[in-house]
Amino acid sequence: MSLEQQAAAFLALHQPGNPVILPTVWDAWSARLVREAGFSAITVGSHPLANSLGKPDREGMTFSEVTARIREITAAVDIPVSVDIESGYAQKPVTLIEGLLEAGAVGLNIEDTVHSEGGRLREPQEHADLVGELRRAADATGVRFVVNARTDVFMRPDTGTPAERLHSAINRLNLAAAAGADVLYPVGMHEPEVMRRLTGELPLPVNAIGVPTQGGRDHFAELGVARVSFGPFLQNALTEYANGLFGPWR
């Protein structure tokens, strides 16, 4: 498929209550593993990608290092690829979109923690404005690039009580939706009642994080989720399994 066709097909997979499962990969090997297992799309996670390069997460990589790995992945598989670009590596939105498309990706996650500025949390409208710039940059290419707007509020106890963080997340993601996001990602491990409120009140498909050794697709379908990714947890599970294999050989 062309990039235009891949992007359209990828967006169509996001169906509330019928979630697309995107096992999170980090290189050509893991991407092929997922493709051969029958999954229809993948996402590349910053944490496992950084681990595979011997770099720290939280923008310890450069954008050029990310796109170099994405080229290897998109050359290895024929399914849509989305990329976690953290907070954008201090790059302009046009540079991010053009670099990802050139590497063969058709989607991105953009978070509101600015790692290059001491880990500060973007203001709600500031993050929405960045989402809007990414949307306009993507639309100018003619590819319906899938923009997944992430908020880290639930991961930041300093932002208030659990109830205050839920309210803040909904506000932030509503602003991102109005700015042109396609998917909304309130990252964190949520109780079912919290996830139901998120999927019920947010106006766009919601991304949840899953742990491959726990639960399954049906759990997230029942909660109204439209997309599930694994973050670092697939790599973590494979690491734990490998350590078990190594035991008798030490």
First-residue to last-residue Cα separation: 47 Å
Structural class from helices and strands?
alpha/beta
Average pLDDT for all residues = 97
Radius of gyration computed on alpha carbons = 17 Å
Report the sheet with the most strands, covering strand number, pairing sense and barrel closure.
6 strands, parallel
**What is the number of helices?**
10
**What sequence of helices (H) and strands (E) makes up the elements?**
HEEHEHHEHEEEHEHEHEHEH
Major sheet strand order: 2-3-4-5-8-9
Morphology = globular
Q: Give the DSSP E fraction (strand runs of 2 or more residues).
A: 5-15%
* Number of extended strands: 11
Residue share in helices? 40-55%
**Could you name the ranges where pLDDT drops below 50 across 5 or more consecutive residues?**
none
Give a verbal description of the structure.
There is one protein chain. With 250 residues, this protein is α/β, with parallel strands linked by helices. It is 46% helix and 14% strand. The chain contains ten helices and eleven strands. Strands 2-3-4-5-8-9 form a six-stranded parallel beta sheet. Helix 2 runs parallel beside helix 4. The radius of gyration is 17 Å and the shape is globular. The mean pLDDT is 97.
Architecture blueprint of SSEs:
Blueprint lengths: L2 H10 L7 E3 L1 E2 L2 H9 L5 E3 L1 H8 L9 H14 L4 E4 L8 H11 L3 E4 L2 E2 L5 E2 L2 H16 L6 E6 L10 H18 L3 E4 L5 H10 L5 E3 L7 H6 L4 E3 L3 H14 L4
Parallel strand pairs: 1-11, 2-3, 3-4, 4-5, 5-8, 8-9, 10-11
Antiparallel strand pairs: 6-7
